[in-house]
Write a structure and sequence with these properties.
Layout lengths: L6 H9 L4 H9 L9 H13 L3 H13 L1
Helix pairs in contact: 3-4
């Protein structure tokens, strides 16, 4: 199964845990021209590619984030 959480983000969060709030704020903001946030896009893409529900993809993303 394809990773739902980039290794670069994991490295950033592990090395600088105080940055977690900034990362989450950035991920949940709507795009500059409206539309989906980065987080919504990050969940929808693998949902479409892997043929899983958005809910399953969201759970996988949160699980990966919490590791």
């Amino acid at each position: 199964q394809e990773s739902l959480f980039s290794p670069a983000w994991k490295t950033l969060l592990l090395e600088q845990p105080q940055s977690q709030t900034n990362v989450l704020v950035s991920l949940t903001q709507a795009g500059p021209h409206g539309g989906d946030s980065l987080l919504v896009s990050a969940v929808k893409r693998p949902s479409d590619r892997l043929g899983i529900t958005v809910q399953q993809a969201a759970h996988a993303w949160v699980d990966a984030y919490c590791q």
